[in-house]
Structure prediction request, 496 residues.
Amino acid sequence: MNWNNFAEINEMYINMTPTQMVKHFDENPMEESVEILNLWARNYPNSGAGEAGLISKVAEKYNVDEHTISTLVEVHGGLGEAILSLGDGLQEGDRNISVSEVYAVLCGTDSAELFDNLMVCFDNVNALGKKWLAAFLLKETRNRCGETVVKKMMIKTYGIPASDMKKATSFLPIDDVISQSVNNGALVYVPVAGNYMKPMLAKGGSFTVRNKRYCDYKYDGIRAQVHNTEEGIKIFNRKGDDITMKFENDLIPWIVENTDPVDWIADGEIYPIDADGNPAEFKNMMSRIHGKTDEVIYRNTVTVRLFDCLMYGGQPVFEDDFDTRLSTLQMHFDKCLLANTIEINTQEEMMDVYNNAIAEGFEGVIVKDPNASYDFGSRSNSWLKYKPPMVDIDCIVTDATLGSGKRAGVYGAYNIAIKDGDELVSFGKVGSGFTDLDLTFLTQEYNRLGAGNLIIEVKGDMITKNESGEYGLRFPRYVKYRDDKEEPTQLKDIME
Prediction:
């Protein structure tokens, strides 16, 4: 498909509902459907080629200064829209740039080479095509045609059962799901040790324990899906990134020593500890997550606690009930690796476990249904979390304020917002809870990605609302950077 034609479809989708987009895709067969669906699913790397670099290239191309382009971005709400406002303005080349050519460019990993190749495309498309080149590069398409819509398109157009789609997208990368759907009209998905699967998540809220449940401590760390294969241990975070190399010198030898040498997959949490083995502040994880050298990576001690088993001996067990999975875990993994899982039957017993967890420095507890299977990629009622009555939200960073004194040279405070539907709702500013390492890292990320592209977790004592109706948090404190999240908390969720 010609890129200019694809641009027209994307422009049309701005005024369509997701249902209408699915219907349009189904009724209008498109060449290069694999590449088109991958583009809509945002399935291409973050090469570091961002807005600042593209503004520089566009300014050079149109022979205007960068400040003019930046002003147009503010006026029109995005770089793609700013480029469209400039009109054709340039001699259009005679090549018919295809969707597959653009997708190949966006899959490049070297930002300088990517910009050069993108500018070749830029020279051979019309003004609308240029807008959508910028929109896809920056992943700011604003037409709500994302991965969720892509899944619905595959269900509708290629006859994929919704249940198959849900499971397959938990086991397989989206490009594999797209390729199988388009080329085969069916999905083959088998969990394999060494291949990441989307983890099950817990829900918050009020609840009462009235019959048998299991209660785990809630650890303040990073989610860890641990796999063992013939090649050794592999660890994935909640987002599916391979973080094995961050633990090669300490956790992995310890895990190997205390597990069986067969294919298995376990779910757990890695968290920081102090010299006595007690939980330490989450901030101690930052050097482990973002460090580049061994000296920084292993600066702080961490441990792992496994709380679920998804595969053992090459045999999937995730469809078994939790009672059975827990027995498998306790039978085949050394106790030193396991979470503190306690059987409870009443609310009072849960509160006893909760109080012990808080006294020992943990976040709270997770209450689990013994009869539930493992529900990949879902925030399930089968796992319910109980934490202290504080507000804990994931926020978009909308602005930053340069620090002074000890914070000179970095941003010392950040304006934050959550969402009410598709609209941003300001939630004030956070300027405490940061370590020096946090401030340096967040400053680098903010300068690289820009406002609206970072999500951080912030907690406070309560939600406030002033006479003007503006929301905020009482005593907001930074908790951690959430590169595993793509959307902030919804207002309705914290109000509930």
Observations:
- The two ends are 46 Å apart (CA to CA).
- The mean pLDDT is 91.
